[in-house]
Write a structure and sequence with these properties.
about 325 residues; alpha/beta; two-stranded antiparallel sheet
């Protein structure tokens, strides 16, 4: 029986930034000599379409996996999940060296309350953000730690054919991996733009479906919201992310960490960007403006706040006050 190895996938950055390419090359050179590890290199995860060889390669990995990408781990994990590359999200120990102010304001990450993954898979996926540090040795150390953790799990796993297949250690799986040439895997895909849903937060409220007027969202066979037509999304528009009441919609390439997939935090369970309370603009108004801009580009009429604005806003004042109401009352009393 072949020795079990940990599959590591290195996802390259978009463009040819020399600093990012240099870090990728240092990591790749280290891992090629690392025992117990198999390395595969693919283009940027977000750009891989269903027929790209890099994505097919990842779909054929059946065991535990480490994915290094230029994405927040939350975004990378749910991007993989909805593409059929599922598993349990593994914990990692690398922390960002210089978190942005916006990330720091998010506070402690909240416990998931959503509908969960589409399909449970008995393996662990570890997502590492290549923006966290420029020291390639830290990623190597973390992969060694993860390999040791996986070996402990493999040694206690039942020695049954099903677990062998899940861990990707049969000859058949090895032959499948060898069938994908590195040159084909690295063919540059076209840039893409589409939303990614975090199903640990999504409550299936369908507000994104009501709001989006471009046919991006649909309902799958399990009556769950999903991104039905990825390429119908308007490039650069993150409007539906602002509308989502649970911050479950991410655009991994967006400039704002909160929309790109940074950890979601809050104040006493209340998810809120305080800048919106001090002249920063209401998220729903901004979202409607962004959507209107895309409608006009398509030769359609702007609809403003008249279409698809979340139902939770209707009759809100007649109901019991929530945390946001109480916070606003407190601000009024302070006359700020």
């Amino acid at each position: 029986m072949s020795q079990r190895k940990l599959q590591v996938v290195l996802s390259q950055a978009q463009g040819r930034d020399p600093v990012r390419r240099g870090l990728e090359e240092e990591i790749a050179a280290s891992l090629l000599l690392e025992p117990g590890v198999d390395l595969g290199i693919v283009p940027h995860l977000y750009d891989l379409n269903p027929g790209h060889t890099g994505r097919l390669f990842m779909e054929n990995i059946h065991g535990d996996m480490v994915v290094l990408s230029w994405l927040y781990p939350r975004a990378a994990y749910w991007l993989l999940d909805r593409n059929g590359i599922g598993g349990k999200l593994g914990e990692t120990s690398i922390l960002a060296e210089q978190p942005s102010e916006e990330e720091e304001e998010n506070g402690e990450e909240q416990k998931p309350t959503g509908i969960g993954s589409v399909k449970e898979v008995n393996r662990t996926i570890y997502c590492l953000d290549l923006r966290d540090t420029r020291d390639h040795r830290k990623y190597l150390e973390e992969i060694r730690r993860i390999l040791a953790e996986c070996k402990d799990r493999w040694n206690t796993a039942p020695d049954k054919p099903s677990s062998v297949i899940q861990l990707g250690i049969t000859k058949k799986v090895e032959e499948q991996s060898q069938a994908f040439s590195q040159d084909d895997m690295l063919k540059a895909p076209s840039r893409r733009w589409y939303p990614v849903i975090d199903y640990s937060r999504c409550t299936n409220c369908m507000e994104c479906l009501d709001f989006c007027l471009f046919g991006v969202y649909g309902v799958d066979s399990l009556s769950r919201i999903f991104v039905d037509n990825q390429d119908s999304c308007k490039k650069g528009c993150p409007a539906c992310s602002r509308v989502c009441p649970e911050q479950a919609i991410m655009f991994p390439d967006y400039k704002s960490p909160a929309i790109a997939g940074a950890p979601v935090g809050g104040i006493s369970g209340l998810k809120i960007d305080l800048t919106k309370l001090f002249g920063g603009g209401d998220a729903l108004v901004v979202a409607a403006q962004e959507r209107d801009a895309e409608l006009v580009k398509d030769g359609r009429d702007a609809v403003g706040l008249a279409v698809g604005i979340p139902k939770r806003q209707t009759g809100k004042q007649s109901g019991p006050k929530d945390d946001l109401d109480n916070l606003m009352d407190a601000l009024d009393n302070l006359e700020v």
